[in-house]
Amino acid sequence: MNYTIHFNLIWKYVPDLLQGAVLSFQIAILAFLGGMIIGLVGASIKIFGGGVLRGAVHAYVSFFMNTPQLVQIYFFFFALPQAGILLSPYQAVLVGMTLNAGAYLTEIQRAGFLSVHKAELEAAETLGMSLPQTIWYVIFPHICKVLFPPLSNHYIIMTLGTSMAAIFGVEELTGRAFNVNAITFRSIEVFIVTAGIYVGITILASAILVFAGRWLFRVKGKVF
Amino acid sequence: MIEGLWEEIPRFFTYYNWVFLLEATGRTLVLTGIGCLVGFAFGFYLAVARLYRGRVFLPLKVIIIFYVEIFRRVPFLVTLMLIFFFCQGVQLDVSVFTVALITVCLIAAAYTAEIVRAGFESVQHTQWEATEVMNFTLVQKLHLVVIPQAWKVILPPAFSFFIAFIKDTALASQIGVVELTYVGKVFNNKGFSAVLAFGTILILYYLISYPLARFGAWMEKKLAVSKH
User: Fold this and answer.
1) What are chain B's domains?
2) What are the CA-CA distances from residue B162 to residues A139, B167, B216 (Å)?
3) pTM to 2 decimal places
């Protein structure tokens, strides 16, 4: 064991790494919002739709949930050009992550929708509420409260998942860590700092989500 | 594109390619299986260690909380690289497979520690107090009272975590472990079309993961604690 730790060579690259963290955040949030839209449509079809449409959503969800995200992005990156669709690394990662998130968020949102009891809807009807009123005062608060914890959990998982983009050459946090590693050769230090930044940004995200949940939907949650 | 694909298929599914694919599948499963079993054992002890009360054990608790939080908040790829370069830095002569295995164990321990802790917390407070009154030792408490009730809560999430890790180990291909994803890259580099190479890998992952996921869902339903 004759490895000397030299953090002082890394410090000047920390702003560079933090810029990468901004890109990580961007990928995560875009993929999450895209996945939310897919999930909303998918969950609606799974509950209300029938026949072929429902089967298609089921196939999509089960395929994307049972295969690795990395191989999915490989497929988009290397196989789609054969069909004439050329994606840049950033686009391939974004498309792969969005579709993957869409599958998971479909399942999460479906479970949330099904948690509304029929008795609640009947009670709303008895009170003479119109449909928008029912949605706004009964369904929406209930669903938000049920969905918020698993959704924020999945967002954290997705933030960690963005590190995969580095493999395709996107210069997000891990990608930049690879670059700094190649410049300085201080591998252990670089990846310790990178890991530290990941811990920092996910704790920050968790804290914001927990407080937002408490404030908006009165969801009890813990940062740790 | 489709015609070219049909021509490639007989060249792709030769005997040796099948052997290569199946060996890699085995390696993925061994990596995940051993990693998760060792990780589960380690994580279980971490969860038990958090049960100790008293000021003497406070540093231990803090270390465990730090360990669990950090390993759950760092991406698999970064942990993998860290362990990889750490082994290189201390000149530990281990194979890349061992590096991946160590990484899986460490991460699995952190996640299962949380799962087991949630299981322990699901046991009613009065039950814990009753064991206290009976003057049980910690081993007796766990063995006779807590685990018989908690395992139903622990097993389903632990199992779904295991299935998730079959897919996460795809990242081990980045340091050169010859598992399923790596084989896909090799086939693609050999000149087979990416649709065929990665399509086969995706299907193989699906064939492994889907039955296990169904089994997990069945088990969860079967073990669901009755609310009556």
Assistant:
1) 2-222 (1.10.3720.10)
2) 35, 9, 10
3) 0.90
